[in-house]
Write a structure and sequence with these properties.
Distance between the termini: 36 Å
CATH topology of the largest domain: Tachylectin-2, Chain A
CATH superfamily of the largest domain: Glycosyl hydrolase domain, family 43
Helix content: under 10%
Low-confidence stretches: 1-14, 16-21, 27-38, 40-61
Mean pLDDT: 87
Number of helices: 4
Number of strands: 30
Strand content: 35-45%
Largest sheet: 8 strands, antiparallel
Structural class: mainly beta
CATH class of the largest domain: Mainly Beta
CATH architecture of the largest domain: 5 Propeller
């Protein structure tokens, strides 16, 4: 069945679809002893599934190619859907809220704390002025019919920070029940703390237990159990260190954990935000069979030892995309981030991109509108510029290359290429850095490609 889904339907085959994905929730297991359907039933179900998938995947546009409305100034976004409406919460005065009915056009609908942050935050973090401080990096999720908001605030460049919690029964400000109820502080940090208490992300495991991931720089990303009602840490529960970078000033923050196809996936931003066009954020990922880790990258390197497979980073006018969260839209996944717009003086802006799991089983994030299709040799032949994303790292990896794919599977200056299941594979290219290899998903209409090399670096490819 999967092998039949070609052309406009390759998303199921290439791993764009959810295929076991649940937003921050793990499977609880499958039932046993179920009655086995007959061969005829299976055939009819297969035909029906093919027709449904053919229609949905051919006609649906998951991520709009252009965003309009109030998208400027968005930083550290988190996105959820309540009913038929999408909501984005982000860093800013009172924690601003935007909404959209179609993911394309966005409008402001106020903020969580329109009168300013709760007074206790300024008691927890000395050195802040109430008239100058915005709420940072919110995270929103729903538990037992109630929306839970985690947010943070701190003194930039220090370890002084706190994470807070609030709840609401609805996200619709026109609903008479709409009211954000402040739940107080969850965790604070200061001198001597292992990590800065910002960038929270709430996760629900397969048993229904709630967890909170958080952290910035220092010893990196932490994880601990929380009470599903109060949102506070459960007493006498351990804290797990999921990821860190050495030396610490290389930077890691903005963690987001999701469950997909039997794996927990930890996305995190490496480098530095908040520097406009000089920002160096890039997004990396590791995976683990257990929520508590260890998280390894594609090469098997732990994320506690500078591991992390590249997902995306800076290119063209998109500078420092980061603080990414993974959001389901029907059968597809989106990466929701901010970026600094080089064409707008480095202003932070909302960015939506699809997530695609490639033939290596790891995700990349192509441009909105990218459509990896049935490709022929003619779509692959020619000169390709393969460009990696810059990233803060202890040892920069070779990324960029210019290659020409020739008739007969030959590559200039060296190597071979082939098309396997509509994926371009380039192998055996001799370079000063050693033998290099790539796989690429290619849009036959735009001749734009996305993929990865044999050092786990994500690649954008452009045919000239």
């Amino acid at each position: 069945m999967v092998a039949v889904l070609r052309g406009g339907h390759r998303r199921a085959r290439l791993g764009v679809g959810r295929t076991g994905y649940r937003p921050g929730v793990a499977d609880k297991g499958k039932g046993q002893g179920e009655k086995r359907p007959s061969g005829l039933t299976l055939a009819l179900l297969g035909l029906l599934a093919f027709v449904v998938l053919r229609t949905v995947l051919a006609d649906k546009v998951t991520v709009p190619e252009k965003l309009t409305g109030d998208i400027g100034g968005v930083h550290d976004p988190t996105m959820v859907k309540d009913g038929d409406t999408w909501y984005v919460f982000s860093t800013g005065w009172g924690i601003p809220i935007r909404r959209s009915s179609d993911l394309s056009h966005w409008e402001s609908v106020g903020s969580v704390f329109p009168d300013g942050l709760p007074k206790w935050a300024f008691e927890q973090v000395p050195g802040m002025r109430a008239d100058e401080i915005s709420g940072w990096a919110p995270d929103v999720s729903k538990v037992d019919g109630r929306w839970h908001l985690y947010w943070s605030i701190g003194v930039f460049g220090t370890s002084r920070a706190v994470i807070g919690h609030a709840t609401n029964v609805t996200l619709d400000p026109a609903d008479s029940r709409y009211e954000w109820v402040d739940g107080g502080a969850v965790v604070a940090s200061g001198n001597g703390s292992p990590t800065m208490a910002i960038d929270p992300n709430a996760v629900t495991d397969g048993s229904g237990d709630r967890w909170l991931a958080w952290g910035s720089f220092g010893q990196g990303i932490m994880l601990r159990r929380v009470d599903p009602t109060s949102g506070k840490f459960l007493p006498d529960t351990p804290t797990y260190n999921l990821a860190r970078r050495d030396p610490f000033f290389l930077g890691i923050e903005g963690a987001h954990v999701v469950y997909r196809d039997g794996w927990w996936w930890l996305f995190a931003s490496f480098g530095f935000c908040c520097r406009g066009v000089d920002s160096s954020y890039s997004i990396h990922v590791g995976r683990s069979r257990a929520l508590t880790g260890p998280y390894l990258d594609e090469a098997g390197v732990p994320m506690t030892a500078n591991g992390g497979t590249t997902v995306t980073g800076s290119y063209a006018n998109v500078v420092g995309p980061g603080h990414g969260s993974v959001v389901a839209n029907g059968d597809d996944l989106m990466l929701v981030t901010h970026y600094y717009n080089r064409n707008d003086g480095g202003r932070s802006t909302l960015l939506l991109r699809p997530l695609v799991w490639g033939p290596d089983g790891w995700p990349v994030s192509p441009d909105a509108g990218f459509d990896a299709g049935d490709i022929s040799d003619g779509d692959a032949l020619g000169q390709w510029h393969l460009v990696g994303y810059p990233e803060e790292g202890p040892a920069p990896r070779p990324r960029d290359a210019t290659l020409t794919l020739l008739d007969g599977g030959r590559v200039a200056p060296s190597g071979t290429w082939s098309i396997e299941d509509d994926v371009v594979h380039i192998r055996g290219v001799q370079t000063a850095a050693g033998v290099r290899e790539w796989w690429l998903l290619v849009d036959p209409d735009t001749h734009l490609g996305f993929g990865r090399d044999n050092t786990s670096a994500a690649i954008r490819a452009i045919r000239s």
